[in-house]
Amino acid sequence: MRLEIDLTSDVPIYRQIRNQIVRGAATGALAPGEQMPTVRQLAADLGVNPMTVNKAYTQLKAEGLLIMNRRRGARLCDIAARRTLPDEAFDRRASQLLAEARARGISKQALLVRISELADDLYESEEGS
Q: Whole-prediction pTM value?
């Protein structure tokens, strides 16, 4: 999977890296147990500071999506084996997105339709496996 950074985005670079790895894990573009590039290698590939990549990897580790080991590097966790219910942090992020949608005047029905469409796109790869 190739990561791409948008330097003009308001989203911090570490967050862009984190989000793309999460999406890759969710869609199957990254396989469970897959070896991730080293912090230095990914930083060089993306042309960013290694501390930025380290911040993304540290966040993914805290979220339980990466296993990090000094000798073996970072590996993607087997998300199928860790299926869990959303936690409080997930609920806070989802609630914030819902609040932003409502503040923009998006109706509950329109939001539910859009969420369903996005979920269909994301889960399509899993159902096709």
A: 0.72
- In the chain, what percentage of residues exceed pLDDT 70? 90
CB 28 within 8 A of CB 126: yes
Element (H, E) at 68: strand 66-69
Sorted by sequence, the CB contacts under 8 Å of residue 10 that are 6+ apart come out as none
Residue 76: other Cβ atoms inside 10 A? 19
Tokens representing 116 are 């369903």
**Can you list the alpha helix ranges (DSSP code H) found in 28-86?**
39-46, 50-62
DSSP 74-116: EEE--TTTT-----HHHHHHHHHHHHHHHHTT--HHHHHHHHH
CA separation, residue 121 to residues 26, 49, 53, 115, 128 (Å): 11, 33, 28, 10, 11
